[in-house]
Design brief:
Elements (H helix, E strand, L loop, with lengths): L15 H11 L6 E3 L2 H6 L13 E4 L3 H11 L7 E4 L14 E4 L7 E5 L4 E5 L4 H8 L4 E2 L12 H7 L6 H4 L6 E7 L5 E4 L2 E2 H7 L5 H14 L2 H7 L16 E2 L4 E2 L2 H4 L8 E8 L1 E2 L3 E9 L2 H13 L4 E6 H7 L22 E9 L2 H21 L4 E7 L2 H12 L1 H4 L8 E2 L13 H14 L4 E6 L4 E8 L4 H20 L17 H5 L1 H14 L28 H5 L4 H6 L1 H4 L18 H6 L6 H17 L16 H9 L5 H10 L6 H5 L6 H12 L7 H7 L1 H8 L3 H9 L1 H11 L12 H4 L9 H5 L3 H4 L2 E5 L2 H6 L1 H13 L3 E4 L7 H5 L3 H19 L5 E3 L2 H8 L1 H6 L8 E3 H9 L16 E4 L2 H6 L3 H11 L4 E3 L18 H17 L6 E3 L2 H11 L6 H9 L1
Helix pairs in contact: 7-8, 8-19, 16-17, 24-26, 37-47, 42-44, 45-46
């Protein structure tokens, strides 16, 4: 029995009081964006924590003035509340709210002023931390508080959680670098804070404005209650913030610094618009010693010795994190830097960094340490089994990139139990850390839990993430119980529950930690800033007379909703369900291929995390509306073309349209599946969504054209000149754009491939090849065709055939068989499965010849390895198609090709790699370098993101501007750095995009190899 696919109605509408406020805001001087669609709200309903809270709206201010407008208008709407948000990387739900999210990351992300002479910078708080350091690096400075999410965390988020991380023993916390802040209060007033003398603060406190009231309360609390504060606050490098009553008053220098209270306040006191920050000079010389241990406990107990040796930082990871890192794209870059110790089992690692102004001084220190570690490794003292040292800054950065990815990597564990954050940033005095962690491990072991550990042993902070399945109600209760137990354990060892990541939903523990008297002082501070509890209510504390409650660890979580999704639905959309909110897909770096649509739109919905969240909610709502099927596949549903046509013309609210908008913006480049720590594969669940969506709505004509390109191209290629003649006509281009929605239609290769390779390749005949001797078979190479290079860039295939001949092999061109990739991209999954089945049968037959098969374009070849496996499983067979560089690297490793005579170009070639290729096969670029080095030819690897073409994406009229914008993000500048004849591009899409925008088509590396060997 077939079902009709239903309309999916959003579950929550905006409350009437918020609608009135948003209407007033839209009619005011506010110049930013106001979004209250269900999808926009969902995109900021989660962060990097386990919690979920759906806001009423999200607003994106463009200026401090916009922030003031937000506050001033709210004076007339007493029930409206706010929470400021930056990168959304909080691990404890700090920015989550059921009010209005104020996101400063989209527009308020500028560097306002850099003063190298005095060593400070002024910034808007939406700037990403690594982006700030990019701007500072040419001046010889950096903003030193470090954190694992530095490529997406904003300075505003760092200020609001008083963030710190690696190197805090030397560099301190964010609050140690704040010179001044501009903060907008709940009433719209602008508060500018810098340190004031106690005398000046006392005079100012007599005034009746907001600053006067705040200073009066700060003096009353921080100065008059000084002894109580010092008695309660632990003496730690990761000192207590939220609110930092201790450091808001400097008793030695007799000044008051209100910025110290705002820093670490989690947006509960106001919205920080701008910050003046002090800077740290970049150390010219670095060294990193990776010390290997026989146990994690050995690593912990040996760390104080490293600290005593005046290390800049000491970072520790356990074997679980290391083992997961070895399965990730990141490992290929550091495999030689952290090698196994023969005959030993690596169970723990200390990464010990030294910085110095003097190269001689740092080498002397390292030599002394090496002597000590060499002896320890021989005797087994302190559990040391080996070590490695690197002085190269680039290598050090690669190792830290692995450490920074540790949080996300833990999410890769198999099964429903995933390591989660809830007690992951405890801080104890470093001398107590090993004993504390051993007892912490005993606690977790008593509950039979698995966990991963890593962190900053120099500061007494270790990140511990127990693996739990919160969809199981009993395990959620266990999480709450363990949280309570850890609070008690931390107190036993004289530490803090929140040493690095803020309180958030752990705010419920505040009263017990501070005691009634001091907690009431916090409430008085809150009252002075935000008397009506409009700023991030429920976090840290409430105003002194308020009856509002604090948020709790037991509050609503993502799993609260996920547990209502049927298992069959979860299995069908498992890549979306795997997303743990880590947010690596928010990476600001335009040189990174990760999610180009997110970079160009600056819209969280258009990121892997955003799309995964939309899909989770979509399948949850489907189940809630009574859709009950054993498999959530398109074949379960059916409707006539007439019904789909009518549905497409109805003006009805359907959440499916919002999901469709986000999916339509995806380039299907698959960088997410390679770079995401938990391998969230958006193109996979996007295709599944499209196949279901179009059971209710009509498909656009362009989808049919793309899906049929592999059937049309061979026919059109029989008369390429005639087809190209019509495609070049302005009238034809206009008709294609208006009727189909396709622009800049590529021209067919003329002459076609058949003409180019005539008399250059051996005709494919299975029986003839099967009868050859093994020696004769090994002289042949089977060329696997794809629709793009064979029919639109045929010279590349022809040149590769000639290259094969030059290398002493006989090229055999296989007959063209549709790959199915275009069908998959557009969600024609039933057709794709049929295509994949037929092509697999053919390629498995050819595979039996034991002759290498080689394809040219990565996106098509990788489809055989990924999408074919997922669609066909065991029926896919064992055939293997090499990419050109994979075949060449194997060929050149044999003695026969130990010495090849080739022409030499004195200038290096510049390699622009296909983003799908370099994320799925991270060794690709270095292998091309090795291949060219075999020809005595230099090659530069050019760091670029996506080119913006991505198959047919860049040819779709509604995506063209985004496609051009993505190209401008990184390719445009990089292309200009090299002469055209030196530029190489491995992807057909990339070569086409360069041709469209810059007017020349780069060569494929095999074409240049042919030139060098000719």
């Amino acid at each position: 029995m077939f079902l009709s696919f239903p309309r999916v109605a959003p579950q929550s509408s905006v409350h009437s009081d918020y609608r009135a406020y948003l209407s007033a805001l839209s009619s005011s001087s506010f110049s930013g964006d106001v979004e209250y669609s269900y999808g926009s709200r969902l995109a900021v309903a989660t962060d990097n924590s386990v919690y979920q809270k759906l806001p009423q709206a999200v607003v994106f201010p463009r200026s401090t003035s916009d922030l003031q407008t937000i506050g001033r208008l709210a004076n007339q709407h007493p029930t409206v509340t706010f929470s400021a948000r930056g990168g959304g990387t909080g691990t404890n739900g700090q920015s989550l709210t059921d009010g209005i999210v104020v996101d400063v990351s989209r527009y308020m992300n500028k560097v306002l002023e850099i003063n190298p002479e005095e060593g400070w910078v002024k910034v808007q708080t939406g700037i990403v931390k690594d982006a700030l350091n990019d701007a500072l690096r040419p001046h010889g400075y950096f903003f030193s508080p470090d954190l694992s999410t530095s490529n997406r965390a904003t300075v505003g988020g760092m200020i609001n959680t008083d963030a710190s991380g690696q190197g805090s023993l030397v560099y301190g916390k964010t609050s140690d670098h704040v010179l001044g802040l501009k903060t907008v209060l709940a009433n719209g007033e602008l508060l500018e804070t810098t340190p004031l003398s106690v005398e000046e603060a006392s005079i100012r406190a007599s005034q009746a404005d907001s600053l006067g009231k705040i200073l009066k309360q700060v003096i009353d609390t921080c100065v008059n209650k000084r002894e109580d504060i010092l008695a309660k606050f632990p003496r730690l490098n990761r000192f207590l913030t939220g609110y930092d009553l201790e450091h808001a008053y400097d008793s030695d220098n007799q000044y008051i610094d209100v910025s110290r209270l705002i820093t670490g306040s989690e947006g509960s006191l106001g919205m920080v618009a701008e910050a003046k920050l002090n800077l740290t000079p970049l150390a010219p010389h670095k060294a990193l010693v990776n010390v290997k241990y026989d146990s994690f406990e050995s690593a912990l107990r040996h760390a104080p010795r490293m600290i005593a040796a005046n290390a800049t930082s000491v970072e520790t990871v356990d074997s679980k994190v290391l083992n997961l890192a070895q399965t990730d794209i990141i490992w290929h870059s550091i495999a030689d830097l952290i090698t196994d110790v023969p005959g030993k089992e690596l169970q723990g690692l200390n990464m010990v960094e030294y910085n110095s102004e003097s190269e001689d001084e740092i080498k002397t220190r390292i030599a002394s340490l090496e002597e000590e570690l060499t002896q320890a490794a021989k005797t087994g003292e302190s559990g040391v089994i080996g070590y490695q040292v690197t002085f190269q800054k680039s290598d050090i950065s690669k190792i830290y990139a692995m450490r920074k990815k540790a949080v996300g990597l833990l999410g890769k564990v198999e099964g429903t139990r995933k390591p989660i954050a809830f007690a992951e940033d405890t801080a104890v005095p470093p001398e107590n850390l090993a004993d504390f962690i051993m007892e912490f491990r005993d606690l977790l072991d008593s509950h039979g839990l698995h966990y991963g550990m890593f962190g900053h042993v120099d500061a007494g902070v270790l990140h511990v993430r127990p693996a739990l399945d919160l969809c199981d109600v009993e395990q959620e209760k266990l999480m709450h119980h363990i949280s309570d137990q850890v609070v008690e354990l931390v107190a036993k060892y004289g530490g803090l529950m929140w040493g690095e990541h803020g309180k958030g939903y752990r705010s419920e523990y505040g009263p017990a930690f501070f005691g009634e008297n001091l907690f009431n002082e916090l409430r008085k501070i809150k009252t002075a800033f935000d008397p009506h509890n409009k700023m991030n209510p429920g976090k840290i504390c409430t105003p002194i007379d308020s009856t509002d409650e604090l948020v709790k660890v037991s509050d609503t979580k993502r799993a609260t909703y996920d547990r209502t999704i049927p298992v069959a639905f979860k299995n069908e959309f498992s890549p979306a369900m795997e997303c743990n909110g880590n947010g690596l897909c928010f990476n600001y770096d335009t040189m990174s291929p990760m999610c180009p649509s997110s970079k160009i739109t600056r819209d969280r919905r258009h990121s892997p995390k955003g799309r995964a969240g939309l899909i989770r909610e979509w399948i949850r709502l489907l189940a809630e509306q009574g859709v009950t099927v054993t498999q959530l596949k398109a074949e379960q549903f059916k409707s006539s073309w007439w019904r789909r046509w009518l549905n497409s013309r109805k003006d009805e609210e359907d959440f499916s349209h919002e999901v469709m908008e986000a999916m339509n913006g995806c380039l299907a480049c698959k960088s997410c599946s390679g770079q995401c720590p938990v391998k969230v594969d958006v193109p996979d669940f996007r295709a599944r969504f499209l196949s279901l969506y179009y059971q209710r709505y009509s498909r656009p004509l362009k989808d049919f054209m793309v899906a049929n390109i592999e059937r049309m191209a061979p026919i059109m290629a029989k008369a390429p000149s005639l087809v190209n003649f019509f495609l070049k006509l302005p009238l034809a281009q206009s008709v294609i754009e208006k009727s189909i929605g396709y622009v800049d239609t590529p021209l067919l290769s003329s002459p076609p491939l058949s003409s180019l390779v005539r008399n250059q390749v051996e005709r494919f005949d299975f029986r003839t090849l099967d009868q050859l001797s093994e020696q004769e078979k090994q002289r042949r190479v089977l060329i696997v065709q794809d629709p793009f290079t064979s029919y639109y860039d045929a010279k590349v295939v022809a040149d590769f055939c000639q290259l094969v001949s030059k290398l002493g092999k006989i090229p055999v061109l296989l007959p063209f068989k549709p790959n199915g990739k275009p069908e998959h991209v557009k969600g024609f999954l039933k057709r794709f499965t049929k295509t994949a089945t037929r092509t697999s049968e053919f390629l498995n037959t050819v595979h039996s010849l034991n002759i290498p098969m080689v394809g040219i374009d990565a996106s098509l070849v990788l489809c055989y390895r990924d999408e074919y496996n997922k669609a066909l499983h065991q029926k896919r067979g064992n055939f293997h198609v090499f990419l050109a560089h994979e075949w060449l690297i194997d060929l050149f490793s044999t003695n026969e090709y130990a010495s090849i005579q080739a022409a030499n170009n004195p200038r290096p070639y510049a390699l622009f790699s296909h983003c799908t290729e370099k994320t799925a096969l991270p060794k690709t670029e270095t292998q091309w370098q090795q291949i060219f080095a075999h020809l005595k030819q230099d090659m530069d690897i050019v760091a670029v993101g996506c080119c913006g073409m991505a198959g047919t994406y860049g040819h779709e009229a509604d995506q063209k501007q985004k496609s051009l914008g993505i190209y401008a993000l990184s390719w445009e500048q990089a292309i200009k750095r090299y002469p055209q004849e030196q530029i190489l591009a491995t992807g057909y899409s990339c070569r086409s995009q360069v041709d469209r925008i810059d007017g020349f088509k780069p060569k494929h590396p095999v074409q240049v190899m042919l030139q060098l060997l000719t």
